[in-house]
Design goal:
elongated; Rossmann fold; alpha+beta; 23% strand; 508 residues; 3 domains
């Protein structure tokens, strides 16, 4: 009996001892687990603070570099960006600060950010704060830029198609007319009117002129006959366009009235005419024999071609002539060197104004070649970043020589010019080969497709350096250097974006 009681007490003591050990182990594990969770919260705060600090420093130093060489403007931009992008650090941290420095050259900016992030739980282990820091360098690059503009015939009729055929060839173009002499409706026109009506305008003089000088300036006709007069075999000389309806002028009764026949067919496109309503103040677009450039600095822009010149001139204003240089090439059936690399941007803009009217084919390869010759020619600098900006409104159709030979593209002449249909393989192959050549010389290529008829795939491959299937544009990546600009507003945005992207780079 006594032995049984003793054995029972011994078993009970063993069980109670085991329970006590388990409780101690559980308590220790619970403390460790709580400690790990607590530390993970503080470590998470550290990781987030480090990430935000580095991103803020990178963004701030890039913002600062865009304002160089003005160090005061650089500091203001860096401060604004840093404040906008360090919300967590500034709300949770202490001793938050950043410092800017400007290495020699007036183009480079260095930045360091520092902050202390107090801990919540790690302080129980003797760590009362984390210190986070980040550094970044950016530079606003010294640029040599070659701007290559398409002045082929499609730069006019691609945007303002001819409305008439004359003897089976292209007929006169339709455009808004010289800005100073622009004619507008003074009374609205409704639908459902008679075929022949009188319309009220602000001034009919431009249509009734017998001045050969005025007619040459306004319409490209070096003749004394009235603009609206019909000459057999010369097309419908009195065509005008209001919105999308084509009218034929049949008489000019007085200074503010035109007699017109409505809903004329477009014989160039083969489409029939339809009457439409037109509001007062609508512009009368008048036929022109040629797409003559009208010096947008003084009288435009009023069509795509003039708008391109104006936007290209605006592009030059986005650079600093103290550091940057710009050269100009144009191309149609062959390329033309308009201006060597120069810091005299006003002279470069004057070279654009001096281009007369677009005509000829689209020799993209020779355009790139002349652009490369500009970057390798007079004014070249060994310390510059080299950029070629290539603009076109269509597809390549011309080239130099029967097949691609690099030596055919080493001068501004284009021997044995070849041609063909838009986008033919010989023309596109030559363009890609010349793009590869210029890219191999460490030139960054930007392409702009202007207007509604561009070949996106062609221009993406050019922007990627000419090699098929390789590069961000062809793989739908965000750092693509091709800009599609169907309208003038988008063209200006493209030029602005290219200027911003080419100016700066994050170097650390």
């Amino acid at each position: 009996m006594r032995r049984a009681i003793i054995q029972t007490l011994m078993h009970r003591t063993d069980r109670e001892g085991e329970s006590g050990v388990a409780l101690v182990l559980f308590s220790l594990m619970l403390v460790a687990l709580v400690g790990l969770v607590a530390m993970s919260i503080d470590v998470g705060r550290l990781v987030w603070a480090r990430t935000q600090m580095q991103a803020a420093v990178d963004g701030s130093v890039l913002a600062a570099a865009q304002s160089m060489p003005s160090t005061s403007a650089a500091a203001d931009n860096a401060n604004a960006y840093f404040l906008d992008n360090t919300g967590f650090i500034r709300s949770q941290g202490t001793n938050v600060q950043f410092t800017l420095s400007y290495p020699p050259g007036n183009y480079r900016v260095s930045m360091r950010g520092d902050a202390d992030i107090p801990t919540w739980f790690a302080r129980f282990f003797g760590i009362d704060h984390w210190h986070v820091s980040a550094e970044g360098d950016a530079e606003s690059q010294v640029l040599d830029i070659s701007l290559v503009l398409d002045i082929s015939g499609s730069m006019c009729w691609g945007s303002y198609p001819p409305t008439d055929r004359s003897g089976g060839s292209f007929g006169p173009y339709v455009g808004p007319g010289v800005a100073a002499n622009q004619v507008r409706l003074t009374a609205a026109i409704g639908t459902g009117t008679a075929a022949s009506i009188n319309i009220s305008v602000n001034n009919t003089a431009i249509f009734n002129s017998t001045s050969s000088a005025s007619n040459q300036t306004n319409f490209g006709y070096n003749t004394t006959r009235r603009y609206y007069s019909y000459t057999p075999g010369a097309g419908r000389r009195g065509l005008i366009k209001i919105d999308n309806e084509i009218f034929l002028i049949t008489a000019v009764p007085n200074a503010t009235t035109l007699t017109v026949t409505r809903a004329q067919n477009n014989t160039f496109t083969g489409t029939g005419g339809v009457q439409a309503a037109h509001a007062a103040n609508a512009v009368l677009w008048a036929q022109r024999r040629d797409c003559i450039h009208s010096a947008p600095a003084s009288t435009g822009p009023y069509d795509y071609y003039d708008g391109m010149i104006a936007d290209a001139q605006y592009f030059t204003t986005l650079f600093n002539p103290t550091y940057d240089k710009i050269g100009l090439a144009s191309y149609s059936s062959s390329g033309t060197l308009r201006s060597n690399l120069s810091s005299n941007f006003a002279a470069v803009r004057a070279s654009m104004t001096a281009i007369n009217n677009p005509a000829g084919g689209t020799n993209s390869a020779h355009g790139v070649a002349v652009g490369r010759q500009i970057l390798d020619g007079t004014g070249k600098r060994v310390n510059s970043s080299r950029v070629l900006v290539f603009l076109t409104d269509g597809r390549a159709n011309s080239y130099c020589g029967a097949t691609y030979v690099a030596s055919n593209y080493n001068t501004t002449s284009c021997p044995s010019q070849g041609g063909g249909t838009d986008g033919n393989s010989a023309a596109t192959t030559a363009a890609f080969q010349e793009t590869i050549r210029v890219s191999n010389e460490a030139v960054v290529v930007y392409t702009i497709g202007f207007g509604p008829y561009v070949d996106n795939a062609f221009l993406k491959q050019m922007a990627d350096g000419g090699v098929a299937g390789v590069g961000p544009c062809q793989n739908n990546q965000p750092n693509c250097r091709y800009y599609e600009a169907p309208t003038l507003g988008e063209l200006q945005s493209a030029f602005t974006s290219i200027a911003a992207r080419s100016h700066i780079s994050l170097v650390r």
